[in-house]
Structures are given as C-alpha cells and as structure tokens.
C-alpha cells in the first residue's frame, strides 16, 4: 500500500501542478495575495467540522472511559492528518487512533468497534451530503444525470448496508476461530479478542439511537465543513453564496473519497475545484485559488497534526 500510495502521490502532485499551471497564474496569484493572512482563518475554520466529527464518533463509545470532546477532537485531528498527508489509503489514521484510545484506557472492542461503525455510517452521511450537493447543482441550472444519481445512491446504500451486515455477522471471529483451529490453538488470544469485538458490534447495532445520532452529527460535520469554502470565498474576494459553498464542498469531498488511494487527493481535488468553480459561475482561476487555499489548510492544520502524533508516540501519551 505504501508503494502504491507513493506512486499515486507523485502522479497526483504532477497532475495538480499541471492543473494549476493551465490557469491564469497572474490572476491566481493576485487572488491569493489579496487574501494574505486571511488564509489562516480559512485553515483554522476546519477545527469546527473536526469537533463535530469528534462528537459523532463519541456517540459510539459507551461508558465512563469515553474521552472528553477535546480528547476526541485531538483523535480526529491526528486521524485526518495521517489519512490526508501520508500514503496509507485513508486507513492508517484509524490504526493510530486505535493505539491512542487503548493507551487512554478505552477497551479494545470499543476502540476498534467504534471506528469500524463510524466508518460505515460515514458512507451513509457522505452519500446524503453528496446528494444535497447534486441537488444544489441542479437547482443552479446544471444538467444532472438522475439515472447516474440513482445508481450512485443505490451503490452507496448497498456498500454501507453490506458493511454493516458484515459487522453484525460475526464473520471476523468465525474466520479467526477457523485459523486458530488450524494453528492448534496458538491464536487463542487473538480469537478471544475478535469474539469480544464481535460482541461489542452486535450490542452497538442493537442501540439504533447511538447509530442515528452518530449519522446526524456526521452529516452536520459535512455541512459545517462548507464554512471553509465560504470563508475562503470571502478571503479571496469571490462572490460565493452559502448554497454554492455547500455544493462545492459536497462534491469535492465525494471526489476526494473516490480518490482514496491518492494521498490528499492530489490533482483530483485541484481539478475538481476548477470544474466546480466554473459550474458556480466563477472563472477557472478562482477555482485554482480555492484549491490552493485548501492545500494551505493541509500545511497549517495537518502538518502540525503529524507532529502532535509523533510527540505522543515518543512521550507514550
């Protein structure tokens, strides 16, 4: 995965540079220079959706060992920093957060199960947010293929449903039990751990209120994330309405998720911003400036997130 991710990162970076280079660089530079220090405000606007996502994740961790909201926000910050900047296929952050949660006293089944359920439910909440973006795009006059939307919705529901059903079917513990039998009980500890995880998952899905609340908070986080686009439009002096900010954020996130093998969706995100800016009635250079403003967020917010993770690993916290 690391080698594939590195190759994808290099290819994506080259494509990103090419996309930006094709625009009116004088206009792009003027927009960014006009924004100046306001770009820091654009970057730190991301703290709000991270906090809302932390609240969503917390809904799935029961008991007194659940970390505080600031603690869960720290977890989300580190998770996004790793998944966004490193060639880990957007799963490395979950592995690191599992280790950190265990260190903080969260039981293994709750730590692993909550992350697995959070990931499954995020498919549903993001699909709903993407549909909102397509609806806003259609309302703005764009021609949207409704058959494509229907097929995409069905695919998303099937994927999320299959993931949830697999989590409820004890498939992991059954597979490990088979391997343990073949290994003559040398995997007994692993088998016991996976049985505890499957027990936790069954109990979780029997608490629909927690799953519903998590999905609602996740959807709220997607919506709040559009604040970044709106603030970026203000900083760059672009006439971006709230509806256009929602549309751009929804479809950019969908593109980024589809390009999960490419670290930070390099190239895909830049091309998406240019295309969506045009659909919102803005010049292509404005889209390139929005894309670079988003990259500035990655540097200002996510690089320190990697540093925080390294410090926590070194200090054992």
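Sequence proposed for the structure above (317 residues):
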């Amino acid at each position: 995965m690391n080698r594939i991710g590195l190759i994808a990162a290099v290819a994506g970076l080259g494509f990103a540079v090419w996309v930006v280079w094709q625009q009116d660089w004088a206009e792009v530079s003027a927009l960014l220079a006009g924004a100046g220090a306001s770009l820091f405000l654009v970057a730190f606007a991301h703290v709000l959706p991270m906090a809302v996502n932390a609240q969503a994740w917390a809904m799935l961790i029961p008991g007194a060992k659940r970390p505080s909201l600031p603690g869960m926000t720290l977890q989300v910050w580190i998770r996004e920093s790793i998944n966004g900047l490193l060639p880990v296929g957007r799963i490395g952050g979950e592995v690191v957060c599992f280790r950190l949660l265990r260190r903080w006293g969260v039981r293994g089944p709750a730590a692993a199960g909550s992350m697995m359920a959070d990931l499954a439910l995020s498919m549903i909440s993001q699909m709903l947010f993407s549909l909102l973006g397509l609806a806003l795009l259609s309302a703005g006059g764009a021609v949207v293929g409704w058959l494509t939307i229907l097929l995409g919705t069905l695919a998303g529901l099937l994927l999320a449903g299959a993931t949830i059903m697999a989590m409820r079917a004890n498939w992991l513990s059954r597979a490990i039990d088979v391997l343990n039998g073949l290994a003559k009980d040398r995997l007994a500890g692993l088998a016991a751990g996976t049985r505890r995880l499957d027990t936790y998952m069954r109990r979780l899905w029997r608490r629909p209120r927690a799953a519903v609340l998590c999905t609602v908070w996740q959807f709220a986080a997607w919506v709040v994330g559009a604040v970044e686009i709106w603030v970026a439009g203000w900083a760059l002096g672009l006439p971006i309405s709230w509806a256009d900010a929602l549309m751009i954020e929804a479809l950019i996130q969908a593109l980024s998720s589809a390009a999960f093998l490419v670290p930070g969706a390099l190239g895909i995100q830049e091309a998406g911003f240019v295309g969506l800016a045009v659909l919102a009635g803005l010049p292509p250079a404005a889209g390139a400036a929005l894309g670079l403003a988003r990259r500035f967020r990655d540097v200002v917010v996510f690089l320190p997130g990697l540093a925080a993770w390294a410090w926590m690993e070194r200090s054992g916290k």
